[in-house]
Design brief:
The chain has a single domain, classed as 2-Layer Sandwich (STM4215-like). The chain has three helices and eight strands, in the order H-H-E-E-E-E-E-H-E-E-E. The strands form two sheets. The chain has a six-stranded mixed sheet. Strands 1-2 form a two-stranded antiparallel sheet. Strand 1 and strand 2 form a beta hairpin. The longest helix has 15 residues.
Length: about 140
């Protein structure tokens, strides 16, 4: 399993996070509020998007057991700024000191917080509604 799938599974197992971005049912199918790709069409905030930004298989001797270094942006979307901040705070609080399994095939050895940034997405040309996005960037070392 790829680390990004394990990281999504790990976040889905955290009730303080999933309570802030609950599942939604669209056209009779229920989707969780944490995605590795863009959310399904029609899924409304709040939700979390886990995006892998880079991957570096750190050089090591031998064929197994080496570390890799992967950078992630975890984007926390909400219709309100306080909602986006609360979701980002929960993600950061959980991940910044986490070590342990992430899915069946990866083990997180260290998580380094790289920073946070704010953005907004206007919902349609000339619209007053916007989505607030807090992006939390992490460097994750994993085996």
């Amino acid at each position: 399993m790829a680390i990004e799938l394990g990281l999504r599974a790990l976040l889905l197992a955290q009730s303080p996070i999933t309570a802030l971005c609950p599942p939604q049912t669209i056209r009779g199918i229920t989707y969780d509020g944490i995605f590795n790709e863009h959310p399904v069409e029609g899924f409304l905030p709040p939700f979390v998007l886990v995006a892998q930004m880079s991957f570096d298989p750190l050089l090591h001797l031998g064929s197994t057991g080496g570390l890799a270094d992967t950078e992630f942006d975890i984007d926390c979307y909400s219709r309100s700024y306080p909602g986006a901040m609360a979701l980002a705070d929960q993600v950061q609080d959980f991940l910044e000191d986490y070590t342990g399994p992430a899915g069946d095939d990866d083990t997180i050895k260290a998580v380094l917080l790289q920073g946070r940034r704010y953005d907004k997405v206007i919902e349609g040309q000339g619209a007053d509604q916007r989505q607030h996005v807090i992006s939390v960037s992490f460097q994750i070392q994993h085996a």
